[in-house]
Input
Amino acid sequence: MRIGTKGAMVALFCTFIFSGAQGQGQSAGSGNKHHAKRLTERNTNRTLSPDDGLAVIAAALDSRKLRHSGDCSHLVHAIYERAGFHYTYVSSYDLYDGVEGFQRIFDPQPGDLIVWRGHVGIVVRPSRHVFFSFRSGGPGTADYTTRYWVHLGSPRFYRYVKDDPCPGCVLRAGRGE
Output
């Protein structure tokens, strides 16, 4: 049986990402590791697994076929939809503040969101600080520890919650609404 070039590239990329995730032990802005571990352990069975994260990465690699408006939050939404993880579209500003359907985490894995006020992407290889998003030249990867991204402030990381009754709904409590 002959494997297509695209299929082989996706398999190779996923192997590369997965091998990096196995030994990954550092994160930017990790804050309180003990608190992060409790948050992660509490809902691990409800959030994206490492395999689910690889499905998101595979959808990102295939994102050239997606129709999107050239905006990071629409691109990320389309990628998650293509990977089978549905949520109500929200802007990167709402994602940064926190929305139902995503749990804030401190040790990202491939497929998690990395969010600044005004920009969102998908973590590809946390051990190398690589993420995928819409950039000035179109969809692509970048290192979130470079000067450009650092000047945007500390990013927040979020993991999709699988069984949330209202994925992507904006949290209203504490926002004066």
About this structure: Helices lie at 5-22, 33-42, 50-61, 72-83, 92-97, 147-150. The chain is about 35% helix and 20% strand.
